[in-house]
Amino acid sequence: MDSDIVSSSVDRSQTAMPDALAFKSINDPIKNQINSCAAICVKQDDPCHLLRVLYESLITGGLAGVVVEAALYPIDTIKTRVQVARDGGKIIWKGLYSGLGANLVGVLPASALFFGVYEPTKQKLLKGLPENLSAVAHLAAGALGGAVSSIVRVPTEVVKQRMQTGQFVLAPDAVRLIIAKEGFGGMYAGYGSFLLRDLPFDALQFCVYEQLRIGYKLAARRDLNDPENAMIGAFAGAVTGVLTTPLDVIKTRLMVQGSGTQYKGVSDCIKTIIREEGSSALWKGMGPRVLWIGIGGSIFFGVLEKTKQILSERSQKSHNA
């Protein structure tokens, strides 16, 4: 299988040796030093290429994450309120943008961190694994990216969901009061349930997306266009959104309970929900969740691939200049 098909489009801008050799003809000390680095990148594919991949991944991941959160935040708020509602409680339709600003502050570094880990890890694994095990590389890279970015994502999620459910109005007050009442650990409430949801979610979503892109490229014998990337992203998001809804309900309940002891952990949360509300309660909010992640997947991966393409083209132009 062609390596360009297996790797994402961030790999497209490999530096060509003729360009590096031609650059040597310029008698300038600084440019000669730059040329030496370019030659090393060409020969070793390290560390210059790794740094470029990391740089592009941080930009593309951060931008894609912010665009999706800003565009679809009201749907996420509705999903959260549906999941925490009990005993026929009414859903509040006001303040659907509560916590958006604070969420974007956390989403930008979290998304950048995820892709800063995901893309280099994926490429490293793809080089070391047989072609027929490319799905393993995507699964492992997605899970690792999710684990590392959870350091930022969990506190962001805790503050966001408590603001969405009306516990706080301002993010600084939320952070201050959570730490005052629950200690610093309160910022990581539901951390275990978050990993239980997000590690399989990230692994499955990116594996499905990457594998569908590989198959599509092989069938079409060309690169995918923007609508095709968006369509595959929507499908991958919707499928994983359905499969992980019960895990999302558990995560939400544990994160928003605050200093209360309604649920003592993941297993107790599951038992309590089933005993008091029935097993169907584990699927609460599936409609808005699938809608949010499906549309979000199309926007996210569409923006992601387009940004990669733009950065790749700029990189090629700078090398050819």
From TrEMBL:
UniProt entry keywords in alphabetical sequence: Chloroplast, Membrane, Plastid, Repeat, S-adenosyl-L-methionine, Transit peptide, Transmembrane, Transmembrane helix, Transport
A Pfam family it matches: Mito_carr
Keyword Transit peptide: yes
GO cellular component: chloroplast membrane
Membrane topology of this protein: Multi-pass membrane protein
InterPro entries linked: MCP_transmembrane
Residue intervals passing through the bilayer: 53-75, 96-115, 135-154
Location within or outside the cell: Plastid, Chloroplast membrane
Ranges: Solcar repeats: 52-124, 133-215, 228-310
UniProt similarity note: Belongs to the mitochondrial carrier (TC 2.A.29) family.
Protein name per Swiss-Prot or TrEMBL: Mitochondrial substrate/solute carrier
